[in-house]
Amino acid sequence: MATINMNFQKLASGYLFPEIARRTKVWQESHQGAEVLRLGIGNTTEALPPAVCDAMKEKIEKLSDRATYSGYGDEQGDTALREALVRYYQRYGVELKSTEFFISDGAKSDAANIQDLFSSENVVAIQDPAYPVYVDSNVVAGRTGLFNKEMGLYDGFVYLSSNEENGFIPSPPEQKVDLIYLCSPNNPTGAVATHAQLKAFVDYAIKHKSIIIFDSAYSEYITEEGYPRSIYEVEGAKRCAIEINSFSKFSGFTGVRLGWTIVPEELECEDAPSGLLNSMWNRRQSTFFNGASNIAQSGGIAALEGDGYDQSRALVEYYLENARIIREGLEKIGLTVYGGVNSPYIWAKTPNGMDSWEFFDILLDKCHVVVTPGGGFGPAGASFVRVSSYGHRENVMKAMAQIEENLQV
Ligand SMILES: *Cc1c(COP(=O)(O)O)cnc(C)c1O
């Protein structure tokens, strides 16, 4: 008799993006011919860097010839890519070994899978609002109680409220927690943690023998001086932090699929001396994963250096310019906005404390613009919407013109 993993029943109903799609479809059906401008989902829209495409084409050429064909590669990733990543981190003064890098098909799956390393008794702290995968992967693994509908929270998680008062970067919790998920620059709030703020978490984690899971998928969007791009810029972080990153937002790989996770050899926790977690993740990846696409990895190598890097940087600058246009446009009509400077996301406060889904409907109905209701990322997001700068420039301009014309705050 097969029985199901009952933890799936705990998952709060309806994933955010399907609900946005449903509402948009309903609206479109009653407004035939009206164009909807999408500044909702965080999905890249511009072409891949030419040097990255060239590298991938070259790889395909090699695969088409039996003399240069290759099949399965190392589960941990191509050595050349891991070594290119070592050099990439050196630019920020971070020294890592290639054996501390694990290449994957993206940061989302790593963020979901990494909790496999830890016991189901661990208490998990997450930022509120948060990227949903940190929450759902731990719910399914049984680290929470039920979803409390009234509060919009799961029993058993420790929520670190990210709000206007703390500039959307919370302090470490008062109580002892075991796993802490942090994302900087943050999706959805666009906030970026300072060195001192990250150091407070590192000090906390070392003191409590906790582990930080640091998602730096937007590190290339940091434009202002003084913000760490990697948690390993903070002294002591190699003892207590795992870092997850991706080529998706840096180099337009959302569809190509490529990311990496760093499990430092020095990493330790309550019952794991240094080295053990690194070898456990190696064991896990070798058994459950057969490596990222070799075509994607060739593209990744090209994205990290030379023309490929410069062209990837230009992509990031393009989206950041969109972010500036959105941010200034929303400010002009009187909204209070955050983010959008070191991040592709603008976190806009709804007028008069309106619920985020209500404001979503107004923006759709009056301005024909789709955004993401902040409440979908956690209760602390209930009076915000996330506006994404991923879009063609002309569509961003059009969306902002429609908002400015049709929305008075
Ligand atoms: C987009 C995003 C990622 C990247 O995920 P991939 O699976 O690599 O495409 C990771 N973390 C956050 C917070 C993101 O927004």
User: Topology as H/E string?
Assistant: HEHHEHEHEEEEHEEHEHHHEEHEEEH
| Rg of Cα set | 21 Å
CATH topology of the largest domain: Aspartate Aminotransferase, domain 2
The tally of helices reads 12
- CATH-level-2 architecture of the largest domain: 3-Layer(aba) Sandwich
Mean pLDDT: 96
CATH class of the largest domain, named: Alpha Beta
- Bound chemical compounds: pyridoxal-5'-phosphate
Main-sheet strand order equals: 2-10-9-8-7-3-6
Low-confidence stretches: none
What is the terminal-to-terminal distance? Answer: 58 Å
Q: CATH superfamily of the largest domain, please?
A: Type I PLP-dependent aspartate aminotransferase-like (Major domain)
Q: Major beta sheet, specifics? A: 7 strands, mixed
- The portion of residues forming beta strands comes to 5-15%
Give the number of DSSP strands: 15
Shape: globular
The helix content, as a percent range, equals 25-40%
Structural class of the helices, strands and pairings?
alpha/beta
Number of domains: 2
What does this structure look like?
Pyridoxal 5'-phosphate binds at residues 72, 107-108, 131, 187, 218, 246-248, 257, 290. GO terms for molecular function: L,L-diaminopimelate aminotransferase activity; pyridoxal phosphate binding. Homodimer. The chain is α/β, with parallel strands linked by helices. The protein folds into two domains: 7-47 and 308-406, Aspartate Aminotransferase, domain 1 (Alpha-Beta Complex); 52-307, Type I PLP-dependent aspartate aminotransferase-like (Major domain) (Aspartate Aminotransferase, domain 2, 3-Layer(aba) Sandwich), CATH 3.40.640.10. Helices cover 37% and strands 14% of the residues. It contains twelve helices and 15 strands. It has a seven-stranded mixed sheet, with helices on both faces. The protein has a four-stranded antiparallel sheet with strand order 11-12-15-14. Strands 1-13 form a two-stranded parallel ribbon. The protein is globular. The model has no long low-confidence stretch (mean pLDDT 96).
